Amino acid sequence: MAVIQQALEECGLPKAAVQAIENPDRALVTEMLRLDRYIDMLIPRGWRGPA
Fold this sequence. Notes:
This protein has helices at about 1-10, 25-35. The protein is an all-alpha fold.
């Protein structure tokens, strides 16, 4: 995230324009997907864990 935040600042954008959510709770992701009036883009990533 530090590299992304630095690049944002260099382009005159606020560091907070891009955020990473570390909470793996799928219910949180589902709720955030419903907040389309407030969140412009959400990139959910999946992880199955060890096989």
